[in-house]
Amino acid sequence: PGDLPTGGVIDADQPPEWSVNNSQISGGVAPELYMGYGFQVGLSRLVSTPIDIEGHETLALRYKQYLINYAADAGEVIGLDVTFDGGTTWEPLWESLLGLLNIPQDEYVYYFDAPTSATEMQFAFRYEGNNNFINGWAIDDVVIESVVDNDLVARTLAGNSTPNVGETGEYIVTIQNGGQESQDTYTIKLIDENGDELATTQGETIAFAETTSFTLTWTPSQEDMGSHTVHAVVESTADVNNANNETAPMILTVQYVDTEDITIGEGTLAGTEIPYDFYN
Predict the structure, then answer these.
(1) Checking DSSP bridges between strand 120-130 and strand 211-218, what pairing results, if any?
(2) Are 259 and 225 in contact (CB under 8 A)?
(3) Helix (H) and strand (E) counts in the chain
(4) How far apart are CA 76 and CA 127, in angstroms?
(5) 178 touches 109 (CB < 8 A)
(6) pLDDT tens column, 209-244
(7) DSSP string, 202-252
(8) Euclidean distance between the first and final Cα of the chain, in Å?
(9) Residues 21-30: tens digit of each pLDDT
(10) What is the pTM of this model?
């Protein structure tokens, strides 16, 4: 605690306050990597020590994180970058405008190809902007691994959480191919809390690291009135890792026929156009 990870370097004109912290809010076990807020401005990267990847081309980088945001936005951008030439060029695995929302505690996984001639790589957690507009960014358990041949991953489930009896609702399931081999023979299902299948569809060709979405439809009946917990699952006989085949559960409530939803304001953040501030 108090130091950077072994071999880690902060590449910045104004280095932010990265260090190992005696906490575990990212979901791992203490200690963990942590960036607190400060008054540093500009582009910064916390760069890892070089990692030997000779003989490996299809890779996955997974880690646990939790970002505690600040209720103001000055256009900050965060990301996770990789380099195969000692930092001369960087490739983003992921990047996003920070906005006002937290990044929830979870494990995050990114799949990528290394150049054929690459023998080592480095990764870097990137922050661009004024890091006074953040409360804290916690990271733990970073793992780089060579991927298996067949591994489909169920990413997200989204859709109408308040469907009406007799009206068809749409549910979008996002999956990713985390295996080296392309996949075209698999099934996506919507399952309720009793294990009953509400909807199903067949997959389509998806290559390594690709992400695609499928729309499933379900029309609840009168017998479905009330609350339910549903999830999506991707099934393939070739899949060797079933631990990542289900999405997080989604709670929905089936409502009476002709129940109408009324939206207050626009978007998901409080603003001057909203007549009531639900944040307070």
Answers:
(1) unpaired
(2) no
(3) 0, 18
(4) 7
(5) yes
(6) 999 999 999 999 999 999 999 999 999 999 999 999
(7) E---B-TT-EEEEEEEE---GGG-EEEEEEEEEE-TT-S-GGGSBPPPEEE
(8) 36
(9) 999 999 999 9
(10) 0.85
